[in-house]
Amino acid sequence: MKKDWFQKKVKQFSILKGYQKPEKHSDTLKLDSNENFVISKQFQRDLIDSAQKISDVREYPLGRAEKLIEALSKYLSIPSSMIGIGNGSDQVLDLILANFCSKKTRVLTSEPTFGFFEERCKLYSIPTIKVPFSKNMTLDLDTFLKKSKNADLLYLDSPNNPTGFQFPKNDLQKLIRNFDGPVIIDEAYGEFGDYSLVSMIKKQDNLIVSKTFSKDFGLAGLRLGYFVGNKNIVDVFSRIIQYPYPLNSIAIEVGILALQKRKLISEIANQIKQERKRIIENLRKTSAFEVFDSKANFVLFDAKGADRRIYTALVEQGISIRKLGQIGKHKGCLRVTVGTKEMNSKFLLAIRDLLR
Ligand SMILES: Cc1ncc(COP(=O)(O)O)c(C=O)c1O
């Protein structure tokens, strides 16, 4: 029966796992989603208050997204014709996959890669080829280059979630120059890493760099994402693919105002990097863990089989981190977000007590 098609689709989708959000615990220190709590709630409230004063939410935000793009253009030193925006970078990635890719598009990425991206490929039946991380959670460029010969699109989150790995800049540039097809570099955590590839966009028209206000700007709840790419891609994306009004008025105005505070934002990113170092050094003091280097605002460590116990014990003490389980040969991986100094100290103290 022809009308069965919808039921069949429902059945086909129902077996998918979907993106796994963290468990919700009330009244815990939230170190499970790579958010940014170093920026104060009051600072963000003030931005929202100012945004509210200049917005009239009875109107569609006509012309305001363009103002945000102009502000981004100044911030990134990239022409506005090369910048597109989205409802979080999740939505940017989703629209690219849904509209440019098909069952025939072989996507090359890493294992592990950003979970949402992987689930979206599954949703659209886009085949993926994965290059696994090595035992010390690094990627091998030559393997990537070799495998890229059989791929149509390349996606790398750089720094990678959940490992925190970032290729040396030259390696990543080499990969992009060598690849005869589109390359998406997801720089959600770029500001905590060693470099950004945004300026490469001017010379490399196969490159798309996606970025977000969720991490360094601490605005995850507002869902503000964007990407830079060549003019033709940005034109079809913004004019045809993207919704007419993907961002709400308040988010747009906050984005514009937040970009004026870039100095403070980058100081905060530096503080997070310093705290990341402290967390890594402290976790490395015990042989109970294997702790991996990170270029992001989180740290991945293998608790060697004690992951569940540690995760549960931390929740009981009011600290929520991310339980990831097996990654490659590492059986019990946990990921902790770098929070404020106080949050990180509480986490480290709790870990110390647990290992006594
Ligand atoms: C690698 C990576 N890319 C993109 C995103 C999504 O960011 P946004 O909040 O802009 O949708 C995340 C969020 O955790 C991420 O880890």
Summarize the structure.
The chain has 356 residues and is α/β, with parallel strands linked by helices.
Structure commentary:
With 356 residues, this protein is α/β, with parallel strands linked by helices. It folds into two domains: 16-41 and 263-354, Aspartate Aminotransferase, domain 1 (Alpha-Beta Complex); 56-260, Type I PLP-dependent aspartate aminotransferase-like (Major domain) (Aspartate Aminotransferase, domain 2), CATH 3.40.640. Helix content is 41%, strand content 17%. It contains twelve helices and 13 strands. The chain has helices at 5-14, 41-54, 64-76, 88-100, 115-123, 141-148, 169-178, 231-241, 249-259, 262-283, 307-316, 341-354, and strands at residues 29-30, 83-87, 107-111, 128-132, 153-157, 183-186, 207-212, 224-228, 290-291, 298-302, 319-320, 322-327, 330-337. The protein has a seven-stranded mixed β-sheet. Strands 9-10-13-12 form a four-stranded antiparallel β-sheet. Helix 7 links the parallel strand 5 (153-157) and strand 6. The longest helix has 22 residues, at 262-283. The mean pLDDT is 96. The structure holds pyridoxal-5'-phosphate.
Record the SSE blueprint.
Layout: H1 5-14, E1 29-30, H2 41-54, H3 64-76, E2 83-87, H4 88-100, E3 107-111, H5 115-123, E4 128-132, H6 141-148, E5 153-157, H7 169-178, E6 183-186, E7 207-212, E8 224-228, H8 231-241, H9 249-259, H10 262-283, E9 290-291, E10 298-302, H11 307-316, E11 319-320, E12 322-327, E13 330-337, H12 341-354
Parallel strand pairs: 1-11, 3-4, 3-5, 5-6, 6-7
Antiparallel strand pairs: 2-8, 7-8, 9-10, 10-13, 12-13
The structure holds pyridoxal-5'-phosphate.
